[in-house]
Structures are given as structure tokens and as C-alpha cells.
Amino acid sequence: MNLFYQPNLPEATYLDTEESKHCIKVLRMQAGDSIEVIDGKGSLFKAEIIEANHKKCSFSILEKITTEQSSFRKHVAIAPTKNIDRIEWFVEKAVEIGIDEISFILCDHSERKILKPERLEKKAVSAMKQSYKFWMPKINELKPYNDFLQLKHRGLKSIAFVDFENPVQLKDLLDGKQDSLVLIGPEGDFSEQEVKLAEEAGFKKVGLGNSRLRTETAGIVACHLMNLA
Fold this sequence. Notes:
Helix content: 25-40%
Largest sheet: 6 strands, parallel
Distance between the termini: 31 Å
Number of helices: 7
Shape: elongated
CATH architecture of the largest domain: 3-Layer(aba) Sandwich
């Protein structure tokens, strides 16, 4: 079954221009064909195409299926990589694995200081459909590191830092019974001052295993560990 995205369901019973073009021009679907549409808020709608217009494909809703979101949120705050393809890859894979919120932080060693959230959201939507998930993660804009630390965060707060003398591993702190937030630093890692500020703000310094990981890989490992807890 072909899956499409319309965040304004059930009021808006049509696909946007990009989704409509894919449905009608690429997949060559016609009036009367069955489709599935998700709203990114936990619901899937079984529907039937009414007007096969490649600019605005309209449909009628036949059935609504809802899913419950986990009570405990999984959140990764990550410094964007210099190569934009790598951070886009992270967003895509994080959504496929399962993440509720992604934040981007501007750190002392950050090389990339500008992000286009619209493109990242498109990657997230594509990954959500590909992995057949009904919930769209919250994607936050780039924020200075110190400002991010001042926000209120519930549950387990940790900062992943390359320190092989630190015996505390993230996998040992996660219990799946509380919100979890993991900070992932840029190429070159967090500065010592940033680690100190995080610890003062209640974050625990943790390791992600015995390997030195790239930024985007560390983000994926954190997502995977949170989903296993």
C-alpha cells in the first residue's frame, strides 16, 4: 500500500503538490484507487482517491486508525556536521530507528553554523513514510549551546563525551521509564568548558562504547540505545 503525508487531516482531505505529483504522475494512480495517509500525529487514514489531480489529489476517508505514542520521549541534541549530507543522513536514520525530538546545537567547535530546517523536515517525512511510522518527530532549529542548556528538560539528561577513563556508559543509565536526552558534540567534540556547563546543569557525562565515533554515528548509537531500553 502506498503511504502519503497530510499533517492537516482530517480537515484537509487532499495531498499537497509534491505528494500529489508522486501519486498521480509517478505511481499513476487513478480515481477509485486506495491509498493510506498519515498525519504525523499518530493516525493513519485509509482512503480512496476522488480526483486524480497531479497538483491537488483529493480523497475520501474510509477508516481511521490511531496509535498511542510512548509515554517517555527520546530526544537527541546534536551539533550539525560540516558536511550537510551527514546530518541529513542522521535525521533520516534516527527517524527510522525511532526518535521523538531532534535539536541542533551550536558549540565551541562547530564548523557548520547554518541549517535549513525545511530540508531536514522533508528528510524526516520521507523516513517516517519509509519506516511506516505514524508520528512525526519534532525538529528544532539550531540554537546556541548555552541557550539550549537553559531550557527545561525532564528525565535523564546526559552528554556523550570521548573520555575513555569515564566508566559510565549511556546503556547502563537508560531504563525506558523516563524521558531521555542525549547531547552529541561536533567534530572535535565538546570543549571542556561545555562539559563543565552541562554537568552544572544536571547532565551526566557518558560514553557510547569503546570506539571513537563520528558525530552522526554517535547520534545513531544514542537513538538505538534509547530504543532498546
